[in-house]
Amino acid sequence: MLNQSGNTDLKSIINRFRYSKNSNISQPLKDNCRKFLNQLNVSQKIGFGYGIAISIAICGTISGIIVSNHYKSKARQKEQHAHEQVEIVRRLQASILQSRTHQQQFIPLVNQPKDLEDEYSHFLEHAATVRKTWSEIKSFVSHTNTKGEDHEAHTDGIPNLLQTYRGIPKAYFQEIRNILQKIDSSNLDSPEKIATAQKLLLDFTNSPLALKFDGISDDLTDLVKISDNHYLEAEEFINNTDQIQFWIAFISISLSTILAILFAYYISISISRPLKDLTHIAKEVTQKSNFDLQASINTADEVGVLATSFNQMIFKVKELLAEQINTNQKLESYNDNLEEKVEKRTQELIEKNFILEKTLRELKKTQGQLIQNEKMSSLGQLVAGIAHEINNPVNFIHGNLTYAHEYTQDLLRLVEIYQEEYPEPTTKVQEEVDSIDLDFLNEDLPKLLTSMKVGSLRIREIVKSLRNFSRLDESEYKQADIHEGIDNTLMILQNRLKVKPESSGIEIIKEYGKLPLVECYPGQLNQVFMNLISNAIDAFDEYEHEGKHENSAGLSTRDVKTTKSQIRISTQTLDSKSVTICIADNGPGIPGKIISRLFDPFFTTKEVGKGTGLGLAISHQIIVEKHHGKLECLSRLGEGTDFIIKIPITQVTTS
């Protein structure tokens, strides 16, 4: 879908890439380039353009790095060569100066043989250094000449120096050795001989050979300056190579950026122009509903594919419209009967939905009850097992405490008789008596055994309560003592009833009437007692925790609590057929709107994680459905709540 304007832009971009005038490019080459680009898809065009731009940037950058590294390597070599030259020249200069200084020290030390010998030793050390450094300079020049003109330029002055002062160091040191051999310091026993020797050394110091030896140091100073200049030139050349590398990379990146911009412009034109044409056709089709229009296709890229798909879509829409007209005509013929059928079907769905909702509520209620029953069954098995395991060692301890008490009394009586018969014990016995405090032991040991017996009796009572509470005989009715079940429940809840730092404790008031044995499921009744008493304890805990603030039921608690928390449990026989159990508290009470939902499954006013909402619902089911009784709740705001249980004494079984 490229038009003439798009082709003109393409020609312009291709001509820019060729770096030549339009007159030098033949028309077939232009056509081939345009044909090649038209065959590419959009991603290939983008990749082709950016590939060329990135290739130029990479090639230019790599070329700059290669050229820069080449010249920088040469500069580094020059810098290293200059540094080595400065180092060796300075060492030679320092050794010559040291040798010259020690030679001049010979004159005042002529009459001091030992000092003269030490000074001569130092002189010989520096002489050896001069000869060694002189040989190193020769090797350095010889090695440099084999590397080419670049390195020879750094050593222009050294060959002249070696040529000018050739043999001077050797002659200088040889002459010093000859003079010192002529002077025998051991025979200098007169001032005249000493003066003669000093004059001989002084004459040599001012001799042409010595002055020429000094000239080496002066010429070396000039060579050091020249070498320093070569070193600075090498560093400057390195900096220049860094700038060359930067500009090559900068030009390459700039050129690649320009090419990328040009390719992006071309690609955006090649994509946007056909899309504009396609958009114009689409507007014509939608506004005029003319489905005979077709978009032109001039490229093989994604835009061309889009135009082809668009043309096919227009054709399909035209077919679908024709089918829709036929379908509408058929739908109108069925429309009259459809409303009646829908209304009838809707009514059926409403009735089935009502039945389904009812079934779901029943299933949810049953599920909650099954979960709670399973939990209580598992808990009962666990408690029964623990009670059995505790009961055996407790019985053993309790049974042996009687014998322990008798044996202890016998021993204490024996000790008393011993004290009467032997009032004056031995020293060792008296120390042991004082150590164990025998009088206190006689008084405290019986008390200790008595307290152990009381504790074991308490444990046996708790174990008995646990075993009675956790009875799993739910398969059939059994005659049970209601008071025993209540007492077992209170025994289990004793820890929650006593005084604690965060709680003032709860007083239990029992008003038991004379009840016969009642046919029931004892374990399930114990569960009901546990739920009702636990709820009363929770209400007191919440009441004390919130103080003067609003409690979770929306009630304002009393300003000051003037009475102790109490739970009153009363039982009585109404007639010969039924009994009532009333569990009442003097807590804050329950609002009427909550009482109406109190026995609904999963309804709770406690915080998340502190209640499931199944306790009272299951208790209601146990009393009403399992025992054919009644469970009622009477509450007075600010005064307390009463739960009244009424169950028959004898259950009537039905087949």
TrEMBL record:
TM helices/strands, residue ranges: 47-68, 246-267
Keywords, sorted A to Z: ATP-binding, Coiled coil, Kinase, Membrane, Nucleotide-binding, Phosphoprotein, Transferase, Transmembrane, Transmembrane helix, Two-component regulatory system
All residue ranges annotated as the Histidine kinase domain in the record: 385-651
Keyword GTP-binding among record annotations: no
Lineage top rank: taxon: Bacteria
Organism of origin: Mastigocoleus testarum BC008
Domain HAMP: 269-322
Catalytic activity: ATP + protein L-histidine = ADP + protein N-phospho-L-histidine
UniProt xrefs under SMART domains: HAMP (SM00304), HATPase_c (SM00387), HisKA (SM00388)
SUPFAM superfamilies: ATPase domain of HSP90 chaperone/DNA topoisomerase II/histidine kinase, HAMP domain-like, Homodimeric domain of signal transducing histidine kinase
Subcellular location: Membrane
Cell inner membrane is among the record's keywords: no
Name used for this protein in its record: histidine kinase
Primary localization: membrane
Gene3D superfamilies for the chain: 1.10.287.130, 6.10.340.10, Histidine kinase-like ATPase, C-terminal domain
GO terms, molecular function: ATP binding; phosphorelay sensor kinase activity
A cellular-component GO term for this protein: membrane
Entries under InterPro entries matching the protein: HAMP_dom (IPR003660), HATPase_C_sf (IPR036890), HATPase_dom (IPR003594), His_kinase_dom (IPR005467), HisK_dim/P_dom (IPR003661), HisK_dim/P_sf (IPR036097), Sig_transdc_His_kin-like_C (IPR004358)
Chain segments annotated as coiled-coil in the UniProt record: 317-348
E.C. code: 2.7.13.3
